[in-house]
Each structure stands twice: as C-alpha cells, then as structure tokens.
Amino acid sequence: MSDATTSAANKSWDGTTIRPQEAEHFGKLALEWWNPRGPMASLHRLNPLRLRFIRGAIDAHWPDVAASLAPLSGKRALDAGCGAGLLCEPLARLGAEVTGVDAAPENVAAARAHAQGSGLDISYVTGELAFLDIGTFDLVISMEVIEHVADKRAFLASLAAVLKPGGLMVLSTPNRTLASRLLLVEGAERLGMVPRGTHDWDDFVTPDELRDLLTEVALVMGEPQGISWSPGKGLHLSSDLALNYLVTVRAA
After folding, report:
1. Do residues 101 and 129 lie in contact, with contact meaning Cβ atoms separated by under 8 Å?
2. I need a labelling partner for 120 at 20 to 30 A (CA). Which of 34, 101, 110, 146 fits?
3. What is the pLDDT of residues 39-79, one digit of tens each?
4. 79 Cβ contact list (under 8 Å, min separation 6)
C-alpha cells in the first residue's frame, strides 16, 4: 500500500470516517444534484455506465433472476454515500427495499423530496454508517465515495458489517494515476465540469491498494473494470483503468 493511501487511511476525526468539510462541500450542492446540466452533470453522465455495471453484477451474482425486470425484488439494498439518490431510485425500480445513507443532511433532504415526487418509498438516513442501526443488506453499493472518507479501512469495515452472508457489494472510485490527475482534477475542475474542491488526487486509491484494504476487512475484490473516455465513444466501460474503475466485492 502506498504512503499516500496509508496516510489517508490513518486520518480520522474521533474514530469516524466522515470528513466534515467534505459533507459541507457536497451539502451545498444538494439542490442542484438532480439537474443534469448543473454542477453534478458528470454524475448524470456516469450513471448509465454505473447502472449497467451494477445490473451485470446483479445478474451474475443471482443468475436465477437475470431475466427479471425486478431482480432485486425481496432484497434489501444500501447506497452508502448516496448523495441525493441518483442510484437509490433506479435500485428501487429494480425491486429493492432501498436505504440511502449520506454524510450531508442537505443531500438526504433533497433525496427524500425527489423520491416522494417520484412515488418511490426509499429510506434515507444521515450519519456515520458504523453508528447507524439499519440492519444488513443483500446488495451494498458505494460509488465514488471511498476517496472522500477520513479512514478508508474503517469505512470498508463498516460496509462489510452490513453486508449479508452471500451478499454482493459494488464499489467505484477514481484511480490514482497521472491521467486521472490531469483529466479528473486539473482538467475537469478548471473547466467547470466538476465543482472546484471535489477531488484530492492524493486520496485516490489504486486497484491494488483497494484490494489490500478489502482483504484486511475479510472481503474479496473481483476484477476491476474501467470507465474511459474517447472522442468517438464518449464515456464507456473498458479494460482501461487509468481514470475510474468499478469492482464487485464479496465476503471472503
């Protein structure tokens, strides 16, 4: 594990994983979260790819429901670091009983309002995941979150604690590469594609580092898949891990 990741994993506020300044940063964006042309436009562009990967992971993990329009029917799903619910709502439409947890109360308020307007029954909670009494889940997802937490190992341990035996976890995060520094931090933030201050490149986690952290909390990582961009294809799933990557995870 690199010095950068080890240092980041050891930072903590009173044993918690939430960084107050991160929660404040994203909370200020709460009212714009669902605007596909607003400051969170990059997430709206990522969402179809994330959902394609998640659906493929669901079908592979529970092949008996692969042909179903509601493969998560009868299952509980958690989105840890849910923002204003961009992934919670699609999971609910796949049949899941969904809980979303976020550090920013403003995001949770926006998520509740949007779900109510969409006619979806989703439970949203604010707080530190390890301290919440929310039960266990068949599916746990956390997308572009681990790079924002104070203690990466503790955060992954809290995800492991709420994953049911035989359950499925899906994670995504930017890779710490020169390409991600130039495109995701320097380029995207300077061009206004991502709000200023969203990313700290030193907190990005490589696939090898993530695998090591998961092993420490008795979780096993599958083969990562990248999210790439090209002029011809735009954003697309690929074998190139230089920018963002997604992984499936299961209990050891």
Report:
1. yes
2. 146
3. 888 889 899 999 999 999 999 999 999 999 999 999 999 99
4. 85, 87, 88, 91, 98, 99, 100, 101, 141, 142, 143
Q: Which DSSP symbol is given to 143?
A: E
Element (H, E) at 214: helix 207-216
Give strand pairing partners of 244: 174, 227
Residue type for position 214 = L
* Distance between CA atoms of residues 249 and 69, nearest Å: 23
Q: Give the pTM.
A: 0.90
Task: Output the CA torsion sign for 5, 139, 194, 113.
Answer: negative
Residue for token digits 């998520």? 111
3-state secondary structure of 244: strand
Tokens at residue 242, please? 């230089």
Contact assessment for residue 97 and residue 104, using Cβ atoms and an 8 Å cutoff: no
Contacts of 85 (CB under 8 A, 6+ apart): 33, 79, 100, 110, 111, 114, 115, 122, 124
Tokens at 105, concatenated? 């109360």
CA separation for the pair 214, 88 (Å, rounded): 24
Provide the token pair at 223: 């083969």
Domains assigned to the chain: 3-63+70-251 (3.40.50.150)
What pLDDT score was predicted for residue 122? 98
- Phi, psi for 153 (deg, rounded to 5): -65, -45
pLDDT digits (tens, 9 = 90+) for 6-50: 333 333 334 589 999 889 988 998 999 999 998 888 889 899 999
DSSP three-state, residue 16:
strand
Nearest to 137 by CA among 105, 110, 100, 103: 100
